[in-house]
Write a structure and sequence with these properties.
Blueprint: E1 2-6, H1 16-30, E2 34-40, E3 48-51, E4 54-59, H2 71-88, E5 96-100, H3 105-116, E6 120-123, H4 134-154, E7 157-160, H5 163-172, E8 179-180, E9 197-202, H6 212-219, E10 228-231, H7 238-247, E11 254-256, H8 262-271, E12 272-277, H9 286-293, E13 297-300, H10 304-307, H11 319-331, H12 346-362
Parallel strand pairs: 1-2, 1-5, 2-4, 5-6, 6-7, 7-8, 9-10, 9-12, 10-11, 12-13
Antiparallel strand pairs: 3-4
Helix pairs in contact: 1-12, 2-3, 3-4, 6-11
Length: 368
């Protein structure tokens, strides 16, 4: 199959949704499909290149930061990508369009369908779902709701990475079927047995809603007992977090590593005794899945997408509960853990997407 993959973010830009798009594209190519990705350009990134069999086209648009993209920048991507696709790509050679994020990328897919009558499927990722992140986007959700519904209505298929996100979609528009397909991780095949190092690792993009400030303030209130926190990420909230570390005199216990390579990330996870995620909202937390596959003991907030993965969590609105759970983790022997992961491996997930593509292309899916 020939697939046009649309996402306003693609590594090295963006966060989890970008990584999902890349991994999915590479897996599809591995299965013998042809995949072209049209995404945002940024500074000195190549305008076009082929990476692991995936052809990547980056269009010129507004974007000031690598890890943050504002709504007006996202709109500039839709406009630039539409012009590029209509002028430079043979759109009729593609069997299907797969877009990631209902907003903004679904807008581009809708325009292309109206002009070329090519079917598209949409994968929701989180904040593109109305109501998912009201702290940041409450007003924007109200503005985009009419076009958001139109994008979903015109999609041949709609997928979400968790049943929680599916329910959020159905609250705003219940007349469209939505299939749950979890985000995938690669099976690393690493040993989960044996003693781990006294490391607490977190991978979340540094934003207030990820709750890393709760971990820092809690570490200041307990005996760390030789444990060290490794923050393998970056983001707009980093400066505030660094100030907090300095305020609590925790520089010897907490290190900001910034973004690290996938190889370095895997090494940290294989050696870490604990993985932490204090996020207030998630769709399907890829970093948690990677930590589980690596055998880390996971200490995570009690939001529903987390509860679907493990049964032990802390109440994210209660620092006292976090303190109790973290203290217990630090006194336990840091041994590797074993989780049931088969349903989250890409080799199994990609077959579900290929089945959807086949249904849409053959016309069996209809405009569901």
């Amino acid at each position: 199959m020939k697939i046009l993959m649309l996402n306003y973010e693609y590594p090295p830009l963006g966060g989890g949704g970008a990584s999902v798009c890349r991994n999915m594209s590479e897996e599809l190519v591995e299965k013998g499909n042809q995949v072209d990705v049209v995404t945002m350009g940024f500074r000195d990134l190549s305008e076009s290149e082929t990476v692991d069999g995936v052809r990547i086209f980056r269009v010129k648009c507004l974007r000031s930061k690598k890890m943050v993209c504002h709504p007006w920048e996202q709109l500039s991507y839709c406009i630039s990508a539409y012009r590029y696709i209509t002028k430079c790509l043979d759109i009729k050679r593609y069997d299907i369009i797969h877009c990631h994020f209902i907003i903004p990328t679904g807008l581009l897919a809708l325009w292309l369908k109206k002009k070329y009558y090519i079917s598209y499927i949409v994968t929701a990722q989180g904040s593109d779902v109305l109501g998912h992140n009201n702290d940041r986007f409450r007003l924007l959700y109200k503005i985009v709701k009419p076009i958001w519904i139109r994008i979903i209505k015109n999609a041949a298929f709609l997928t979400a990475p968790s049943s929680f996100l599916k329910r959020e979609i159905l609250v705003s528009y219940s007349e469209k079927d939505c299939v749950v397909i979890p985000n995938g991780v690669y099976e690393k095949g690493c040993s989960v047995s044996g003693k781990r190092g006294k490391y607490i690792v977190t991978l979340a993009r540094l934003q207030k809603g990820k709750g890393i400030q709760d971990l820092i303030s809690t570490c200041a209130k307990i005996n760390m007992n030789g444990w060290h926190v490794e923050i393998l990420s970056d983001g707009p909230y980093r400066e505030e977090l660094e100030k907090l570390v300095e305020q609590y005199a925790l520089k010897d216990s907490i290190t900001f590593r910034g973004y690290v390579s996938s190889e370095e990330r895997d090494k940290y996870l294989r050696n870490a005794g604990i993985f932490f995620s204090g996020s207030r909202f998630e769709a399907m937390p890829i970093a948690v899945l990677e930590a589980m596959d690596a055998g880390c003991k996971v200490l995570i907030s009690d939001i529903e997408p987390h509860r679907q993965l493990v049964t032990e969590e802390f109440i994210y609105k209660s620092l006292e509960d976090l303190k109790k759970k973290l203290r217990k983790c630090l006194t336990d022997t840091p041994d590797g853990q074993k989780y049931e992961m088969d349903q989250f491996y890409w080799k199994n997930i990609i077959e579900q997407y290929e089945d959807i593509y086949s249904q849409v292309i053959s016309g069996k899916a209809g405009e569901r």
